[in-house]
Amino acid sequence: MKFKLMLAAAAMFASLAVPASAQDVSGNWLTASGETRVRIAPCGANVCGTIVWTKNAGAKDENNPNAALKSRNLVGVNMISMKPDGNRKWSGTLYNPQDGRTYSGSLTQNDANSLSLSGCVAGIFCRSQTWTRVN
Length: 135
Fold this sequence. Notes:
By secondary structure, the chain is mainly beta.
């Protein structure tokens, strides 16, 4: 009985040691430039990231190669689609509205309030940035 009580107490303290959000990439994230906020949320077994705010209110997707999409608002654009690829890691695609291109990429959650994104062209030329969690 005493052993079970000690085991239960140890399990409780262990669960308090790591914040729940450290295991969950879901939430609102501020891009490295500080000009865009992206909401990352589950979409099926994957995670998706949708632009929810831009510094330039009313910004359009003017660099999109599809002429029919150039006039759409950036807010609401899904820019991340990734599947789990290990503990706190995801891989898939990233849409960059600054140049209108979609890149293969990865997302790694560094801790509860920071994640790293990396996008690559032809798997050779890569660029990374760090995003921070915001309310």
